[in-house]
């Protein structure tokens, strides 16, 4: 129980400290509200515009989730394909790296022309950002299995498929979640870029741009807080799934903590 | 000992006389500058002016600045002008308000919001005097009020578009329910690709872009001719504290800008060439720059051919439009938005 409380309390204190430092910077350097508001002003602006922002936030969450799932599946598939032979890895890996070297903003506009103003280009942008850390992490997991374990499985007559399913794939689960957590933090950025480039009607990014143009800086920062919260929320959800999917990691941690106590 | 004291006294008197002479020299310079006017007589040390543009990179609307720089009008006015660019368009006013720039170009909506927010920024002269915002279609497509219904129209999600579009829709007997408005980051490729039916923009940017890409004229539905107020889009503005401390430099700047603007209107090709020489890496074709500047020139003088002069009416109309769409709680007195006191005397 104490561990759970600590696990919740420490991040809350950490976030509170960030807000405190933010507030102190505004006060100490006497930053004008039109340049940057205090956390209180930003939160107040968020509260004042909540009726408008809530449905827009749901749209952004939808874009983020769909894109994340597509990106994660694509990343896993690519990693599995690359893990089969060195030739395939040699062919695909440079393309993956090149894809991440291309500024996302540069492909955003052509995507809209190709895919329209709806949710599709946003999903593609999020997937574009998410698939890479997932693919690289899973590939590392698949490639770095204990050699002795593999040799033992083969010596016991394990087929290529059974070795893959029973040894390689489980070894890639932990790296998979590392990749998913990295992707989760960046996913919302892809959705926001997509909204900025083109949207039918209003969007979180569009609201932020309009507020910026109207010199409503507290609203701009309020929306930024909301976008950040979406990213953090999604990250925490992935962490939750990770705990459920890899219980052995949590258990060993508990044992360690208990033995220390 | 007495001789030493006498020598010290004489030396002290000599130093005092020298200091007094230097001080006298300074004050006589000030008197001369004040008497003759900074706009016509260059002081020994030019006044440094930081000028911020409304966009994040160089564009041909900087032509009056470039001409004033290249043709020595700033130098004659005793000014050393440096041009800076804001990190994003919405920050153009903030850069002025923080004092990072002294003078700058901003949109009229920026000025209204700045006044509403109590920012120390005031408009000191019109850049354009007329509204060149409108709806555009790709070459060959009709740009009429009758053609608007049911169309997909792109906008930048900016306050200007939000304020002006309802006027045009109302003139067409429509509401925003009768069209699909999409927010975009750059409209030209979407218009030319047929992904939007109409695009909202100012003539100098959209028309120049279409001409540059296709060599053909786009369809133009000018808002001022279709229900929207005929108000300027861009103005010269300044940080009020800096302008209060440097009234002569501010007036000298506007004098130089007036001369440079008139020259650039009279000599458009040479003006574009001067701009491209000053900014060879401006990233646009000469065809685009020429088309854009030649289009913009039509909106710079007012109906009487005068430059820069602002009116109460333009600010009241814009304030009313912004209040009408709920982006402004109250319209201020026109004098809160602008002053003509720094403009050259007619």
Number of strands of chain B: 10
Parts with pLDDT < 50 across at least 5 consecutive residues of chain B? 13-40
Chains forming the largest contact: A-B, 24 and 31 residues
> What's the total number of strands of chain A?
1
Shape of chain A: globular
Gap between N and C termini of chain A: 13 Å
* Share of residues in strands of chain A: under 5%
Along the chain, the helix and strand elements of chain B come as HEHHEHEHEEEHEHEHEEHHHHHH
Largest sheet of chain A: none
The radius of gyration computed from the alpha-carbon positions of chain B, rounded to a whole number of angstroms, is: 25 Å
Give the low-pLDDT segments of chain A. Answer: none
- Assembly level: heterodimer
The largest sheet of chain B has its strands arranged as 2-1-3-10-4
CA radius of gyration of chain A: 22 Å
Biggest pleated-sheet summary of chain B = 5 strands, mixed
> Ends of chain B: how far apart?
70 Å
Mean pLDDT of chain B: 86
Strand content of chain B: 15-25%
The rough form of chain B would be described as: globular
Individual helix count of chain A: 12
How would you describe the overall organization of this protein?
The complex is a heterodimer of chains A (261) and B (346). With 261 residues, chain A is an all-alpha fold. Chain A contains 12 helices and 1 strand, in the order H-H-H-H-H-H-H-H-H-E-H-H-H. Chain A has helices spanning 2-28, 39-48, 50-84, 86-101, 104-115, 120-143, 147-155, 160-171, 173-197, 204-213, 217-245, 247-260, and one strand at 198-200. The longest helix of chain A has 35 residues, at 50-84. Chain A is globular, with a radius of gyration of 22 Å. Chain B has helices at 2-36, 63-70, 73-76, 92-98, 108-116, 159-171, 188-192, 203-214, 240-245, 247-266, 268-278, 286-297, 312-324, 334-337; strands at 47-52, 79-84, 103-107, 121-126, 133-137, 152-155, 180-184, 198-202, 219-222, 234-239. Chain B has a 5-stranded mixed β-sheet with strand order 2-1-3-10-4. In chain B, strands 7-6-8-5-9 form a 5-stranded mixed β-sheet. In chain B, helix 6 (159-171) links the parallel strand 6 (152-155) and strand 7 (180-184). Chain B starts with a helix and ends in a 9-residue tail after the last helix. At the A-B interface, helix 5, strand 1 and helix 10 of A face helix 4, helix 5 and strand 7 of B.
């Amino acid at each position: 129980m104490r561990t759970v409380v600590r696990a919740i309390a420490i991040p809350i204190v950490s976030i509170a400290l960030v807000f405190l430092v933010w507030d102190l910077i505004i006060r100490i350097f006497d930053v004008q509200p039109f340049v940057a508001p205090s956390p209180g002003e930003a939160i107040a602006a968020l509260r004042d515009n909540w009726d408008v922002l809530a449905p827009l936030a749901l749209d952004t969450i939808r874009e983020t989730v769909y894109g994340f799932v597509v990106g994660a599946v694509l990343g896993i598939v690519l990693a599995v394909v690359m893990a089969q032979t060195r030739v395939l890895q040699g062919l695909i890996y440079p393309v993956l790296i090149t894809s991440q070297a291309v500024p996302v903003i540069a492909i955003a506009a052509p995507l809209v022309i190709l895919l329209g103003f709806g949710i599709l280009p946003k999903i593609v942008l999020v997937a574009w950002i998410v698939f890479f850390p997932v693919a690289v992490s899973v590939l590392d997991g698949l490639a770095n299995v204990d050699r002795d374990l593999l040799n033992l499985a083969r010596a016991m007559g394990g087929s290529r498929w059974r070795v893959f399913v029973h040894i390689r794939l489980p070894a890639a689960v932990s790296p998979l979640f590392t990749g998913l957590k990295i992707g989760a933090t960046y996913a919302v950025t892809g959705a926001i870029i997509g909204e900025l480039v083109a949207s039918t009607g209003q969007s979180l990014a569009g609201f932020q741009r309009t507020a910026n143009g109207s010199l409503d800086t507290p609203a701009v920062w309020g929306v930024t807080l909301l976008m950040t919260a979406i990213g953090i929320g999604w990250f925490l959800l992935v962490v939750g799934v990770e705990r459920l999917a890899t219980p052995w990691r949590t258990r060993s941690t508990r044992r360690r903590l208990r033995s220390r106590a | 000992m007495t001789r030493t004291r006498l020598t010290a006294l004489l030396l002290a008197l000599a130093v005092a006389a020298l200091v007094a002479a230097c001080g006298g020299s300074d004050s006589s310079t000030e008197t001369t500058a004040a008497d003759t006017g900074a706009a016509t007589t260059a002081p020994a040390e030019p006044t440094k002016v930081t000028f911020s543009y409304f966009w994040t990179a160089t564009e041909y609307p900087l032509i009056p600045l470039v001409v004033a720089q290249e043709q020595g009008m700033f130098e004659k006015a005793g000014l050393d002008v440096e041009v800076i660019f804001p990190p994003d368009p919405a920050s153009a006013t903030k850069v002025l308000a923080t004092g990072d720039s002294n003078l700058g170009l901003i949109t009229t909506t920026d000025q209204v919001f700045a006044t509403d927010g109590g920012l120390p920024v005031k408009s000191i002269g019109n850049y354009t005097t007329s509204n060149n915002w409108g709806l555009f279609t790709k070459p060959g497509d009709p740009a009429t009020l009758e053609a608007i219904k049911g169309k997909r129209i792109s906008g930048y999600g900016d306050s200007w578009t939000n304020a002006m579009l309802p006027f045009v829709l109302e003139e067409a007997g429509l509401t925003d329910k009768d069209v699909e408005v999409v927010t975009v980051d750059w409209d030209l490729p979407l218009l030319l690709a047929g992904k939007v039916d109409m695009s909202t923009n100012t003539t100098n940017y959209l028309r120049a872009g279409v001409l540059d890409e296709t060599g053909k004229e786009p369809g133009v539905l000018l808002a001022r001719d279709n229900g929207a107020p005929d108000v300027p889009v861009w103005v010269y503005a300044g940080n009020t504290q800096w302008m209060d401390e440097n009234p002569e430099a501010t007036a000298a700047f506007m004098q130089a800008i007036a001369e440079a603007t008139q020259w650039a209107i009279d000599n458009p090709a040479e003006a574009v060439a001067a701009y491209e020489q000053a900014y060879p890496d401006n990233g646009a074709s000469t065809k685009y720059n020429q088309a854009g500047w030649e289009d913009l020139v039509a909106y710079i003088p007012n109906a009487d051919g005068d430059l820069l002069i602002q009116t109460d009416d333009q600010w009241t109309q814009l304030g009313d439009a912004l209040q009408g769409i709920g982006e402004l709680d109250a319209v201020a007195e026109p004098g809160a938005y602008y002053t003509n006191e720094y403009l050259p005397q007619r």
